[in-house]
Design goal:
By secondary structure, the chain is an alpha+beta fold. It has 9 helices and 11 strands. Strand 10 and strand 11 form a beta hairpin.
Length: 232
């Protein structure tokens, strides 16, 4: 899982669960990098349920989440809002959009009163041009994104749902081993029905690997869940 890369950027240990090591909140991103973003960005406070970016808006800023929680969502074909995930402290949002100049494809809003550091496109490119630490971090972060996309594509073709679900939970849980996604969104991410996901979640619950809560899944035994998802 490219753990050597994390060790080179200051990780004390690698996470055996298939995620970045604890203490590195985004793959390839260290506290040194976050401090550079803070020094070159502007700190903003957002009120609860404040829309920050709408679908189609330009990405003028990279967001570093410092406190609170943000959601990213879209509107489905029936006009209903569907939350795809959340961003918590230490997370980044908008890196690809800022670098590529592409419009936003999700709504991004604060779930509660939250704080984020906004790094403008100009400031980000200045950092990339002049700071090798930032360049290496962004290359690693984008490399991890490609790796995740490739792995997901392989799993879609090769693994049964129960293993894909276990791997999805492991990869996307936060630092507290919690994945804050409703079952309908889990199902959409895995390309199956909500009923199918619910059945598999209940099976993992009976094995005492997870706890199902309203709008979230809590991992109780990450090491066993990781082994459950292995390609065997």
């Amino acid at each position: 899982m490219i753990y050597e890369e994390y060790q080179q950027v200051g990780s004390s240990e690698s996470d055996k669960m298939g995620r970045p090591p604890r203490g590195i909140l985004e793959p390839g991103i260290t506290e040194e990098v976050l401090d550079l973003f803070r020094a070159n960005g502007t700190r903003h406070t957002y009120q609860k349920n404040q829309l920050v970016i709408a679908v189609g808006d330009d990405f003028d800023n990279l967001f570093l989440i410092e406190a609170g929680k943000f959601s990213f969502s879209s509107i489905d074909r029936n006009g209903r809002s569907s939350v795809y995930g959340y961003k918590s402290p230490g997370s980044l949002w908008g890196l690809a959009g800022v670098l590529l100049g592409t419009p936003a494809s999700f709504f991004f809003e604060s779930v509660e009163e939250s704080i984020a550091v906004c790094v403008s496109r100009e400031a980000l490119w200045t950092l990339i041009d002049h700071d090798p630490v930032i360049r290496r971090a962004i290359i690693r972060r984008l490399g991890w994104a490609v790796f995740e996309a490739t792995t997901f594509g392989h799993e879609e073709r090769m693994l049964p749902l129960k293993k894909r679900l276990a791997n999805f939970l492991i990869r996307n849980a936060d630092q507290d081993d919690v994945l804050e996604l409703p079952q309908s969104v889990l199902a959409r991410n895995l390309g199956v029905s909500r009923y199918a996901v619910g059945t598999q979640l209940q099976m993992l619950k009976r094995l005492n690997l997870i706890q199902i809560e309203y709008g979230r899944v809590r991992i109780l035994d990450a090491s066993t869940l990781k082994r459950f998802g292995e390609r065997t």
